[in-house]
Each structure stands twice: as C-alpha cells, then as structure tokens.
Design brief:
By secondary structure, the protein is mostly beta strands. It has helices at residues 120-127, 301-310; strands at residues 2-5, 22-23, 57-60, 72-76, 80-81, 84-85, 88-94, 100-104, 131-134, 138-141, 144-147, 151-153, 156-159, 177-182, 188-195, 202-205, 230-231, 236-239, 243-246, 249-250, 271-277, 281-287, 313-318, 327-329, 332-333, 343-344, 347-351. The chain is globular and about 50 Å long.
C-alpha cells in the first residue's frame, strides 16, 4: 500500500436544534483493517492544536477497493491526527473526470416532506456510486421529514438551509448557514445562504450575518442584507455548517451560524466534511469517534478544518456528524458508525 504524505496542521460538526436520527439496529460488521495503534505520547489536554508532533503519513488504500475508478484515491489516516488517536478516511477525486451527485429528501420550501430517510447503504443500492458520505442536518416531526441543509442537484433545489433558529422559541433568529456550491463551470466556493420566504429566492453571501445568541436578532437576510448578496445559481450544492475554509483560510463562523450545543465545535466527535482543492479535486472526509475503536474520541471542528486544509482544500464546509458520519467505498463501510449501525439520513453526497 502506498504512503501518501500530507502536511497536517488545525474546526467540523455542529449541532442543530431539534435534530433527530434513526438507526436500523443491525449489528456492527467485521472491520477490514487492524485496530489503530494508540498514540505513543498521551494527549495533553492543555496543548493547543498544532503544537503536537506531526504524523503526516496517510496510506493510499485504493487498491483495497475493487473496481474503484482510477480518478478517485482513498486515503486512510495515520494512527494519530492532531495528537489524538484517529481512524479517518479521505476520498480524493479528480473533478475533470469524476462527477458529484447528491440524494436528498425533497423539501425546497422548508415545509416538510413525506419522503423517508435512508441509510447510505440504501442510497448506494439504488445509485451505485464509487464513494458516498452523509450530507447535512435534518429532523423528523409530526410524521414529516425536515431537511435542514441545502441540497442542489443539476440546478434543482431539493432542500434549503434552515432559515430560523431559537434557544427558547420566543426570540427568533435568522441565520445564514454554510454551503459548498459549484457553478455551471464547475468552480467551487464555500459561502452562506438564506432562503427568503418573502420572495421565494435563495441568496448566497460572501460572509455570514453576524448573529450572536448574546445579542438581539438581526434583520431577516434579503437581497440587501448581508452585503454582497447574489441569487443562488448553482449546478450542485450541499449545506451544513459551519464553513471551515474559504479562499484557503480557516473560517470560524460557528457563532454567527447560530448552532446550538448538542454537538459543539470544541467537542471530540465523529465528523464529516467536504471540500475542494485549488487544482479541482473534491475531498470527502470522515473520522470515527466516541470510542467505537478504543481510544478514538473524534475531532473538533477546528482540527477538521486544519486536516482539510492540509489535504489541499481551499474551500470546505462541515456536514452532519456524530451518529450520522459514514463513508462507503464501493458499498463498504470505512469508519465504524457511532450508533452501532448506519443512521438513516436526509441527504447523501456521492462521487461517481
């Protein structure tokens, strides 16, 4: 197996209000790798990210997946990332040959859908992609499914980023949320979006509305607020949050995007992220957590942002994590899902 060297340097899953997920209750299968070794040096809780010695050898395990297209590379992480025991995978695809696809429950007006959630394996059975990961956030209420994250396929809006949030459901806020968007030319950018009930348009912004739980709600986003708004014209897009990288720089928009603390940015958790490199490669990332493998707690969003940057990404966003985090390659699981089995989700991303 080929060793691939990347430079690991420092953000990923945030929680959303009213998050609900499902599990099919199946047993955890046997895993196709050896249990990772524990770090030689115990993690120092007081150590800042980036201060620890770097173990930067990722292993190219593409040959382990029969039938994988030559334009997709599967990397397995070293046993230590950011000074922590790690089990993580990255799928890197040349977008001049590969294509991005998306499946999502359809709810383009945030009114709820009768469509059911699906496990990544269920989506794989229908689509047969080379690689599939879970997408953004969602919840189920009153018999309806509510995607909470943007999904666009071939220019069709399947779902929107949630456009309101609250801590007490008395004071209502209107956050702009993260999205990774590809235009008709295939150019990718991370940005913030808002679906306006007032005019039925989805706006894209170069910076988030600077909301804070500690301040009064800002005005409802629109064509004039925040500055720089454009009507969304994406060929493909996925939402989640927070934004991790924009124009090659680490971004911390967890606060303005108004996530609650169910799965905080500073917590160690399973994580899923998606990004694009300067040379037009798509990167899907997942990491295990919650001690599904002994000693593997997961990563913070700051640490995932750094990993994505050092894998070459210039644009990246965080997706749903925790029990939703999953990557299948050729239909085979990579990390151990922390629910004990794949969670049914409202959105998946695919490489074909």
């Amino acid at each position: 197996m080929k060793k691939t060297r990347v430079f690991i340097s420092i953000l990923l899953v945030s929680a959303l209000p009213a998050f609900c997920a499902c599990s099919d209750g199946t047993q955890i299968p046997d895993w196709p790798w050896d249990e990772p070794q524990k770090p030689e040096t115990p993690e120092d809780p007081g150590e800042e990210p980036g201060d620890e010695p770097v173990n930067d050898e990722w292993t190219d395990v593409s040959a382990d997946y029969e039938g994988l297209p030559s334009y997709i590379t599967i990397l397995r992480s070293p046993s230590t990332l950011q000074g922590k025991a790690a089990v993580a995978y990255a799928a890197v695809a040349d977008m001049s040959r590969a294509s991005l696809d998306i499946w999502s429950v359809k709810d383009p007006t945030l009114s709820g859908a009768d469509e059911s959630l699906k496990t990544p394996s269920k989506v794989y059975e229908a689509e047969k992609p080379a690689v599939i990961i879970n997408g953004g956030y969602f919840y189920v209420d009153g018999g309806k499914t509510y995607p909470m994250s943007l999904a666009v396929r071939n220019g069709e809006i399947l779902a929107q980023n949630i456009n309101y949030s609250s801590q007490d459901w008395v004071k209502i806020y209107y956050p702009t949320r993260a999205a990774l968007l590809l235009d008709a030319s295939g150019k990718a950018k991370a940005a913030w979006t808002y679906y306006s009930n007032a005019d039925g348009k989805t706006y894209v912004y170069p910076q988030p509305a600077q909301n804070s739980w500690d301040s009064k709600p800002l005005q409802v986003p629109s064509a004039t607020f925040p500055e720089g708004a454009e009507v969304m014209d994406a060929r493909w897009a996925v939402g989640g949050g927070p934004v991790l990288l924009r124009d090659g720089e680490v971004v911390n928009s967890y606060g303005p995007e108004l996530f609650l603390s169910d799965v905080g940015c500073d917590a160690n958790n399973p994580r899923t992220a998606v990004g694009v490199t300067a040379d037009n490669k798509a990167v899907f990332f997942v990491c295990e957590g919650r001690n599904m493998t002994e000693g593997v707690k997961g990563l913070t969003t700051a640490e995932v942002a750094a990993v994505m940057k050092d894998l070459g990404c210039t644009e990246a966003i965080n997706l749903d994590g925790g029990g939703s985090s999953c990557m299948l390659v050729g239909g085979r699981e990579t990390i151990k899902p922390s629910d004990g089995a794949q969670r049914s989700v409202a959105c998946t991303l695919m490489l074909k």
